[in-house]
């Protein structure tokens, strides 16, 4: 998926990186950018200061204009979602490549404007969907692509846990379910064709805090997402079921397990009459477990250098946001939404 064309930096040239937003995600990006070979963090900005103390020797600049004026090649945007569009458009206008934290923007219309601005300027624009860099999901996608599951029938995700104090401007759908929509389309290599959803409000906040969504992808795979931030049990799981068995990815541990369809005869009458598969052998794969956020920044670096890269494009970010808004529309109207 290598990028080429206007605006790509010379391969191997150190990238002068700027970072705007020094909050719960920005602080981690600051550390990782400093660790990635070929990236130099030269400027940071946050109007609210540096509450996590990650700026180090760098002056904390007040806004995106000051960040641009520092003379950067590319920027990481880690501001609240409602600020993604104005910050990203300012960077595009200034000729600065950017990776924007997910989702690409607060609405589909804003996301389309952001994607168009970077495309029209010939700039690299990416979206930070870090789950794509999870070792279990990388291995799952690779093995599915190699045919190890045969035809894929179903993808289900479960993303549940306590409320994250960092969230103020969106509900669970745009904050968390957006991950599952993105990684599902990426694993299946197909977009969504229909979606239906239910949400509920149980915590007294303005936005929804639980969602159950079902849908069908363009290639016929059926999907299901269970997402909330009101569970005392933290779960991050993706299950892909196909003709040869099932892959189970645990995103918390980074483990991938394969459970094969069994061919062992069962002489217990009540079970034997069932016309389906039985549980076969299980394999838990030994995977190299690299920090996903670091892999994500390396993907951005490689895209900037015009090298093969798995960085998430802004067009992909817009599709995910389109599905996310359809989930909210379905929940509000009680209808199935065709995309």
TrEMBL record:
Sample GO molecular function, one term: nucleotide binding
InterPro entries cross-referenced by the UniProt entry: Gfo/Idh/MocA-like_OxRdtase_N, Gfo/Idh/MocA_Oxidoreductases, GFO_IDH_MocA-like_dom, NAD(P)-bd_dom_sf
UniProt entry keywords in alphabetical sequence: NAD
Keyword NAD: yes
Gfo/Idh/MocA-like oxidoreductase N-terminal domain: residues covered: 15-128
Pfam families for this protein: GFO_IDH_MocA, GFO_IDH_MocA_C3
Stretches assigned to the GFO/IDH/MocA-like oxidoreductase domain: 138-247
SUPFAM superfamilies to which the protein is assigned, alphabetical: Glyceraldehyde-3-phosphate dehydrogenase-like, C-terminal domain, NAD(P)-binding Rossmann-fold domains
PANTHER family according to UniProt: BILIVERDIN REDUCTASE A (PTHR43377:SF1)
Protein's name according to its UniProt entry: Putative dehydrogenase
Organism the protein comes from: Ornithinicoccus hortensis
């Amino acid at each position: 998926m290598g990028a080429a064309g206007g605006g790509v930096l010379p391969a191997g040239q150190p990238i002068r990186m700027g970072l705007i937003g020094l909050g719960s995600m920005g602080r981690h990006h600051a550390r990782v950018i400093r660790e990635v070979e070929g990236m130099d963090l030269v400027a940071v900005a946050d109007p609210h200061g540096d509450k996590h103390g990650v700026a180090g020797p760098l002056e904390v600049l007040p806004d995106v204009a000051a960040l641009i004026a520092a003379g950067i090649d590319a920027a990481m945007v880690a501001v609240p979602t409602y600020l993604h569009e104005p910050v990203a458009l300012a960077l595009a206008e200034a000729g600065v490549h950017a990776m924007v934290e997910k989702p690409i923007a607060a609405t589909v219309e804003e996301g389309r404007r952001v994607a168009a601005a970077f495309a029209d300027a010939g700039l690299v624009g990416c979206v930070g969907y870090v789950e794509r860099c999870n070792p279990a999901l990388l291995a799952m996608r690779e093995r599915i692509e190699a045919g190890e599951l045969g035809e894929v029938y179903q993808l289900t995700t479960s993303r549940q846990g306590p409320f994250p104090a960092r969230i103020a401007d969106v509900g669970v759908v745009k904050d968390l379910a957006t991950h599952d929509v993105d990684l599902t389309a990426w694993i299946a290599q197909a977009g969504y064709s229909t979606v239906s959803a239910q949400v509920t409000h149980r915590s007294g906040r303005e936005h929804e805090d639980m969602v159950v969504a079902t849908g069908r992808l363009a290639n016929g795979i059926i999907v299901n997402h269970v997402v909330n931030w009101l569970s005392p049990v933290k779960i991050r799981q993706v299950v892909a079921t196909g003709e040869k068995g099932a892959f189970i990815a645990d995103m918390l541990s980074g483990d991938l397990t394969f459970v094969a369809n069994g061919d062992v005869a069962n002489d217990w009458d009540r079970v034997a009459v069932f016309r389906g598969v039985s549980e076969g052998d299980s394999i838990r794969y030994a995977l190299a477990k690299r920090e996903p956020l670091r892999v994500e920044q390396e993907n951005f670096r490689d895209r900037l250098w015009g090298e093969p890269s798995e960085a998430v494009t802004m067009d992909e970010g817009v599709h995910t946001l389109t599905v996310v808004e359809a989930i909210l529309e379905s929940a509000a109207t009680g209808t199935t939404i065709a995309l």
